[in-house]
Request: fold
Amino acid sequence: MKYSKYARFYLLATQGIITMVVLVVIGYFIGRAINASSAWPGILAGIGALCGLVSFIYTLLRLLKEEDEKKNEQTNQSKD
Reply:
């Protein structure tokens, strides 16, 4: 049971990192398609990284909220 908690956080961290990398690459290639010699590839890659980071933080907070709700349910059931 303890390991499943760590496995979830490992999977979440891996998913967050992969999401950020994919969004950076997508942003870079979209920027190159717009104009390869301008600043667009870097700007769009940075925006992709920020979007991936926000997505990762949102998923992490949602997972922590679910765990808190499970703990509260277990403590409420044990009191009854």
About this structure: The chain has a mean pLDDT of 88. Residues 40-79 form the longest helix (40 residues).
